[in-house]
Structures are given as structure tokens and as C-alpha cells.
């Protein structure tokens, strides 16, 4: 784990981020995208991140092995002190504490940026993500039943929330 460095994402990281994300699109209901993203789509996605909405990568000896980000929770101004988090770890690097390291850094940044709370929507069956978020102090706050249809069935999404101090 000592070779892992968490840093701000750079545009040159996009091919690795695309690979990580597209694997999840193909194999998991952790995202409700149904088609793989293109590099151009990821460039547009990348442009949404800036100081108030950080995008972090876990870098192992120059190779991106995971990423986490804060994004806008809702568009209305009263939501500006709430952010939504996402975290993805490369399939060959899961179970090594990388997600926890990324999320810990992200939570620290959220506190520094003055956020009041972070929410995360986790698809049913994604126990690794549930366990990670609960370990970090997130609590379940509600379930949206059957809101996503992927792989021939409906999926629930449970929202988890962490209040920042």
C-alpha cells in the first residue's frame, strides 16, 4: 500500500479512468450507464471537476488503479453544501484498501471545502461499497426501490450519508 499515492486527477489519466469505468459498465450494476463511454465523453465528464468538486486518483508506480470524486448533488443553490461521492477501483486492485484511501482523502477535502454532508447512492448487491461507506461513518438513509433497469432486472439504490464536522 505504501506505493499508492493519492493525487488530483490529470487529463492524461483519462484512458485509465475510462478503462476502470467501462469495465464496471460492462459487468456491474454499480453504474446505471448501459453503454461504454468514449474518451470524448470522459473528457466532457472530466471538465466538470474543479476545485469545488475534486477528482482524485490512486496512482501505483505511475499506473492509475482507482479514482474517487465529489460531484454536485443537485442543481438548486440550497444544495451547494452537499456533495455526492463516487469511488471506483480497478478490478485487479480491489480488496487492497485503495477505495478506503481514496474516500478518506476525499472526505478530508470535503471538510476543507466547507461541505456539510456527503451522500452516496449504492446499488443493491454492492456489498463492498456498502462496507466501505459504513466503515467510514456513512449511514443508510433511504432506499429507492427498482429505480434502475440493467442486465434484465430492476435494481434498488440505497442512499448513504455522512455528516462532516
TrEMBL record:
Residue spans crossing the bilayer: none
Domain N-acetyltransferase: 4-165
Keyword Hydrolase recorded: no
Alphabetized UniProt keyword annotations: Acyltransferase, Transferase
Transferase as UniProt keyword: yes
PROSITE patterns in the record: GNAT (PS51186)
Gene3D superfamilies: 3.40.630.30
InterPro entries linked to this entry: Acyl_CoA_acyltransferase, GNAT_dom
Molecular-function annotations in GO: acyltransferase activity, transferring groups other than amino-acyl groups
Record protein name field: GNAT family N-acetyltransferase
Organism for this UniProt entry: Brevibacillus thermoruber
